[in-house]
Design a protein that fits this description.
This protein is of the alpha+beta class. Helices cover 32% and strands 27% of the residues. It comes from Actinomadura montaniterrae.
């Protein structure tokens, strides 16, 4: 009997459509069935590197509907699993006129013990929804903003899997090496905990990668890329990482219309007909996407009622050459510029890397970029590059020109120069392993502009690094680093901001709630593996 290897995952959902993603253990026909609602949608699997996947498009649903569903493969029901006591997996279509809730977080290590990584915020969130039923405040979207898997910091279970495939001293040692390793990383992350598996089957999920999905400091600089491509094992690693990301994460971020017109998906499906395997096509695509970032857009945007969510790829689409560097290449920035428009109640810009860091860290990174770029001479530039990689100085602040370009867009939207100003413009980010809220204080705009950070879901900082970040978040510390940046001829930032809430260093999940012109955010931390308690709450708009 054909079985589910992973899933089902509920991905893109609109007012009338839903997407179900699955991995199976052999080629088959996958069907999503909800008989009481007249749903019976199916798709054939496609095959890549011996693994089999299906994306099922469900259409014709009613806005605001609650649709319990089952999954069948080759006519046999495989979900819910026999004997399961979990609540039914359910498609909840969006109500364009209702309150929108977006829960988000990043940086989740799995599997692992509570003693090592603390309690899992995602699992505790799942247990609350299981227990609360329709009385719970259900999120309309779960957004995971990076480090869904750790390809370079492996669990004992992943190391055991690798030992069954290759010698322990074969490079990359204690890291994922190829597509096959990545498939097991995703299974450990998304199947190991039954509550998390159920959550992903019943809450629409969107994602974007960060560095650990590929490797720490991924694309931090041109020098880093040169160093990595000089390694004989890197091609299999980067093609495996990007190719698996396209299958396990990116396909579900796309709307049904985008998938229907996607040439790669069409080619993969065509190659899989009559028992073929699309692994070679996927590898060639992944290598091209890494070497020529303008050939693939990982960023995406979706509008829900009066809210626009723009999810920005701040990793793979970087412009990194011997002469130029940018957080986004030219084509990607033009796309983002086009998405930053008024006429909405709320504009949300999600980036795995925070746009607004604590100002001490911001000035340190902008100073380091200038020094590594030669502001203090060639010898200092070499030292600056070493510091950049050692200290992970590679956020938006370390791409000063890109930071200023985005600031210009946001200010224009906030002042109503691109249509009526939204009530709020919020950046949603993770990566830094603590949670906080920063508010822009200048220039004055009609929109409330904030940076909301929620990290980690499950991977807290150790004591020394935690103390350093707490000091960096304190008022009055940033002046010395701004002086250094000024000495390196870095202009003053076009925005001023201050942290008003946090920092909190606990594992956490945040929920942004949008109703009309009102926007609020709440952070919660797992008190136990099955219960959450509030860390903080703030009104973005009044």
């Amino acid at each position: 009997m054909t079985a589910l290897a992973l899933g089902p995952h509920l991905r893109h959902v609109s007012a009338r459509t839903a997407t179900i993603w699955v991995e199976t253990d052999r080629p088959c026909e996958v069907r999503v069935v909800a008989r009481e609602h007249g749903v019976d949608a199916g798709a054939r699997t496609f095959t890549a590197h011996g693994h089999h996947y299906a994306v099922v498009e469900v259409d014709g649903l009613e806005p605001g509907a609650r649709v319990p569903y089952e999954v069948a493969v080759d006519g046999e029901t495989v979900w819910p699993e026999p004997g399961s006591d979990d609540p039914p997996s359910m498609i909840r279509t969006l109500d364009p006129d209702g309150t929108l809730r977006i829960s988000f977080g990043s940086c989740r290590r799995s599997p692992g013990t509570p003693e090592r990584f603390g309690h899992d915020a995602l699992a505790a969130f799942a247990h609350r929804l299981m227990a609360g039923g329709d009385d719970a405040a259900w999120p309309d979207v779960l957004l995971m903003v990076g480090d869904q898997v750790y390809a370079d910091e492996l669990s004992d279970e992943m190391k055991e899997f690798i030992r069954g495939r290759r010698a322990a001293d074969e490079p990359p040692v204690d890291e994922a090496a190829d597509f096959e390793d990545y498939t097991h990383l995703y299974k450990l992350a998304w199947r190991d905990d039954p509550a998390v598996r159920w959550l992903l089957s019943t809450v629409p999920t969107f994602t974007i990668f960060d560095d650990h999905d590929i490797r720490d400091d991924w694309n931090t600089s041109y020098a880093w890329r040169q160093e990595m491509w000089a390694q004989p094992w890197w091609r299999a690693r980067i093609t495996g990482g990007i190719g698996s990301y396209w299958i396990y994460q990116h396909l579900g971020n796309m709307s049904p219309q985008d998938r229907a017109s996607d040439p790669l998906l069409a080619a993969v499906r065509a190659a899989s007909e009559n028992g073929g395997d699309a692994g070679k096509i996927l590898d060639e695509f992944a290598e091209r996407a890494d070497k020529q970032p303008d050939t693939m857009r990982w960023s995406y945007a979706h509008d829900w009622g009066g809210t626009r969510l723009v999810v920005v790829d701040s990793r793979c689409s970087r412009l990194l050459t011997a002469d130029r560097r940018g957080m986004l290449d030219d084509d990607e920035f033009r796309w983002l510029d086009g998405q930053c428009q008024g006429g909405m109640d709320h504009l949300l810009i999600a980036s795995s890397l925070p746009y607004l860091l604590p100002r001490t860290i911001h000035h340190a990174e902008s100073w380091n970029e200038a020094v590594a770029g030669g502001a203090w001479g060639r010898r200092a530039a070499a030292a600056g590059e070493k510091v950049r990689q050692a200290a992970d100085l590679e956020h938006w602040a370390a791409f000063e020109r890109s930071f200023r370009e985005v600031a210009e867009d946001v200010i224009a939207v906030g002042k109503g120069e691109r249509g009526p100003a939204p009530a709020s413009i919020s950046f949603l980010s993770g990566d830094i392993h603590y949670s906080c809220l920063s508010r822009v204080t200048a220039p004055d705009t009609a929109s409330a502009i904030t940076q909301i950070i929620c990290s980690p879901l499950r991977n807290p900082l150790n004591g020394t690094i935690r103390r350093a970040n707490r000091i960096a978040s304190m008022r009055g510390v940033s002046g010395a680093f701004r002086a250094l940046a000024k000495l390196a001829k870095v202009p003053a930032p076009p925005l001023r901001w201050r942290m008003t809430d946090g920092p909190w260093f606990d594992n956490a999940i945040a929920t942004v709630e949008l109703a009309g012109r009102r926007c609020t955010v709440q952070w919660e931390t797992p008190r136990t593996e099955t219960a959450l308690t509030e860390l903080g709450r703030a009104a973005i708009t009044r």
